[in-house]
Amino acid sequence: MLDAPLAPELQAEAGRPSRETSSRLKIIDGDVHPAPRSIADIKAFLPQRWREHLEIYGSRRKLGMTYEPYPKSAPRACRRDAWPDTGGNPGSDLDLIRSQYLDAYGIEYGILGPLGLSGHSELNQEFSAALTSAINDWQKEYFAKPEPRLKAAIVVPTESTQAAVAEIERCANDPVYAQAFMLTRTSEPLGNQRYWPIYAAAERHGLPIGLHVFGSGGHAYSGTGWPSYYVEEGAGHATSCQATVSSLVIEGVFERFSRLKVVLIEGGFGWLPALAWRLDKLFERMRSEVPHLKKRPSEYIREHIWVTTQPMEEPQDRKHLFDIMEWIGWDRLLFASDYPHWDFDDPFRAFPAGLSQERYRQILAGNGLAVYRLA
Amino acid sequence: MSANGPYQGAIDCDIHPRVPTPQTLARYMDDHWRDTVEVRGIEAWDSISYPPNAPLTSRPDWRKADADAEPAKLTEATLDRFGFAHALCNSLFAVQFFRDENLAAAFARALNDWLAAEWLDKDPRLRGSVVLPIQSVERSVDEIERRAADRRFVQVLLLAMGEQPLGKSMYWPIYAAAERHGFTVGIHAGSSYHHALTSSGWPSYYLEDYAAQALGFQAQLASLICEGVFVKYPKLKVVLIESGVTWLPPSLWRLSKFWRGVRLEVPWLDRSPEQFARDHIRLTIQPFDAPPSPAQIGRIMDQLQSDEMLLFATDFPHWQFADDAMLPAGLSPALTRKILIDNPLAAYPRLGRP
Amino acid sequence: MPRHVVAKAAEIPPGSRKLVQVAGRDIVIFNISGELFALSDKCPHKGGSLSRGKLSGAVTASQPGQYHYSRPGEIIRCPWHAWEFDVRTGRSWCDPQRMRLMNYAVSVEPGAKLVEGPFTAETFAVSVEDAYVVIETK
């Protein structure tokens, strides 16, 4: 729905939250993006050798450029009202994060997901490892320690499995970290066995794997080459999510790691049911190719995959959205805002009218409590 | 099942004659290229898209009967048996894999001539697609012009994944030529594998490869709409063939949502991507990637917001359905008739004028 | 038709905007080259505050690859999802029939006239020397 108001029963309880009256609905937000005030914040956490490397050679990603190839819809892809008056980037000022977001919406926990200069997709594997460590320390010191509602993510240097495992081991015993964090555009599809030690480490520590869209694994952003427009890239994130889920399931990751939980972040969720049906049908035809799978793909998906709701699909008929939610399973949807980015979903306005209280509560918080490591 | 059954008069929009060998095609080449095939030893030129012995590639009963080997066997297995009015032959020889555009053009010409001589000439119900040597837009246009007079060819054929997204303006002369001659543009599952199959790299299994074809279609759909192909060529219809169907509605919601925020990037779109899709995009119905229950299928038909987008197809001899269950369960008689007959006739203007 | 005095005219010079509260509503006033427009501040899509949005021009095209830029500063882009609204009409660019911002009659009146009433100056005193922006609520 384009202009759906909240359902009356929700409006009555949720109202429009404000700084003064925090909502009685608990909210766990699966996608919050912290940013440094400036690069100096992050450099402070790098060892001298890598600080100098960054100063001299810069960040060189498997993309050939220092930014991203599609100019965004707004500067830094951020809400225009999220720039701190004190200067610095959206997502860098804890006071503004509190007043504009945590307090304003009554967020119980916001799960951080660092993007940009954070070690993802770096060509130099050692630098990638050093940078992810710095990012993880920075998240803790700047956000998770001073503000316990913000939970950090263990960013891992995905393409260097050994370093990724080492980073998980370094951070995992610290309760400020709620998830391990990787991106969906990788060098190999994430079901590939080279990544399995990462899943073993995450499973061992009870950490869900958060897979956020973006990244660059050295491949075109579609199987048919590079699209021209940001609108295509944006819509196309759903395809990297589909490729990633297919790979995790079909390669047998969930057969091997039966307690592993995977959360797909910022790819929406509409694509998931059709993917499960397609994989089931192909599994029926070609079981002989994948004898390591003991269950239908849809069963692995149902047991191991969660999806965050942002950016919420907005069909003209809201019943179509509820169809999809029903088919995915109400216990597998996690609210996410993407604060402070431009396609932010407001927890009280993103969902169309007509959700029952019970389901709304489940998506806003109940499911997140079951997935993230929030102890 | 016999004629007068539920599929009587249907138009099958996707069947596959067995992929010919380079030696077979050499018979349709001029002296230079025939010699080239022999001198350079082009013995095999096979894509990995359909491994010949993979279960999906041929339904067991059709495989046993060798039903895709020649027109008489094909018609016995499908057209005669079900009473189809027409079947549209899509050739899957790997023309798109040549890096040399001259070689590609020679093979495309031979392939299209082979189809005409060995299939279309043998049964008046058969129709064909003109396979294009997409490595060169100029040569693709030449091939369209060369085949335009033969009205048994109703479509030009491209693959779901190639060098660049198909909406890009470099490909527009192809659409201009297609529109000029009333050809429909068909995009069939398959890749030239010039890029990794997904934005996250190469999957290990054939199962994933086939699943990922739907991702290629999602990219092409976005490209064709966003680049303004349908603004430039308002009469053009594009058929996504063997694409799967159920991924479509959520893909369009997402595209339409992003468009609302970044419309200034593509200001030539005077209506939402969803509307462009309903006006210009068609999909063949096998595979459908159906949900488990007929009630869900009903919901998906509602999500499509159009009863004109789906075209009947068996995808013969690929193994998409069991027995005679060629349509998803629970479709109304009126919608069934549209899918079987009316929608294909509307999508393929050249079908009505043999 | 209640009329509300919401600002001194000098507070909203050409090219500027001001967010005001009138009878419990958030209303944003834009001054485009001397013309005033008053619109509901809350984006009807998801509630972003349009007063924090970016003004830009109207981009149209009759053919792919063409960009016709007109009416600079007359299109407001929501600070959240960047949906475009026509400041003159309040209508959404992509869904002009189904979605629009409430717009309000707005005018500049001399203080001398206002002191006579029947206007509501909720937040400040009106002096006869100045000119004021007045909004009419329905």
Structure in a nutshell:
The complex is a heterotrimer of chains A (375), B (354) and C (138). In chain A, 39% of the residues lie in helices and 10% in strands. Chain A is an alpha/beta fold and 375 residues long.
Number of domains of chain B: 1
Largest interface: A-B, 67 and 70 residues
Largest beta sheet: strand ordering of chain B: 1-2-3-4-5-6-7-8
How much of the sequence lies in strands of chain B comes to 5-15%
Q: What class would the helix/strand composition of chain B place it in?
A: alpha/beta
In total, the number of strands of chain C is 10
**What string, H for helix and E for strand, traces the elements of chain B in order?**
EHHHHEHEHEHEHHEHHEHEH
Low-confidence stretches of chain C: none
CATH class annotation of chain C: Mainly Beta
- The CATH superfamily label of chain C reads Rieske [2Fe-2S] iron-sulphur domain
Overall shape of chain C: elongated
Q: Quote the distance from N terminus to C terminus of chain B.
A: 28 Å
- CATH superfamily membership of chain B: Metal-dependent hydrolases
Count of alpha and pi helical runs of chain C:
1
CATH topology of chain C: Rieske Iron-sulfur Protein
Give the terminus-to-terminus CA distance of chain C: 6 Å
Quaternary structure:
heterotrimer
Detailed description of the structure:
- The complex is a heterotrimer of chains A (375), B (354) and C (138).
- In chain A, strand 4, helix 7 and strand 5 (209-212) form a beta-alpha-beta unit.
- An eight-stranded parallel β-sheet of chain A has the order 1-2-3-4-5-6-7-8.
- In chain A, helix 5 runs parallel beside helix 6 and helix 6 packs parallel to helix 7.
- With 375 residues, chain A is of the alpha/beta class.
- Chain A has a single domain (26-371), classed as Metal-dependent hydrolases (TIM Barrel, Alpha-Beta Barrel).
- The radius of gyration of chain A is 20 Å and the shape is globular.
- Chain A contains 13 helices and eight strands.
- The relative contact order of chain A is 0.15.
- With 354 residues, chain B is an alpha/beta fold.
- Chain B has a single domain (11-349), classed as TIM Barrel, CATH 3.20.20.
- Helices cover 41% and strands 12% of the residues of chain B.
- Chain B has an eight-stranded parallel β-sheet.
- In chain B, helix 6 packs parallel to helix 7.
- The radius of gyration of chain B is 19 Å and the shape is globular.
- The relative contact order of chain B is 0.14.
- The model of chain B has no long low-confidence stretch (mean pLDDT 96).
- Chain C starts with a strand and ends with a strand.
- In chain C, 3% of the residues lie in helices and 46% in strands.
- The model of chain C has no long low-confidence stretch (mean pLDDT 92).
- In chain C, strand 2 and strand 3 form a beta hairpin.
- Chain C has a single domain (3-136), classed as 3-layer Sandwich (Rieske Iron-sulfur Protein), CATH 2.102.10.10.
- Chain C is elongated and about 55 Å long.
- Chain C has one helix at 111-114, and strands at 3-8, 17-22, 25-32, 35-40, 54-60, 68-77, 84-86, 103-110, 119-121, 131-136.
- Chains in contact: A-B, A-C, B-C.
- The A-C interface holds A 2-3, 73-74, 79-81, 342-346, 349-350 and C 44-49, 52-54, 79-82, 95, 98-99.
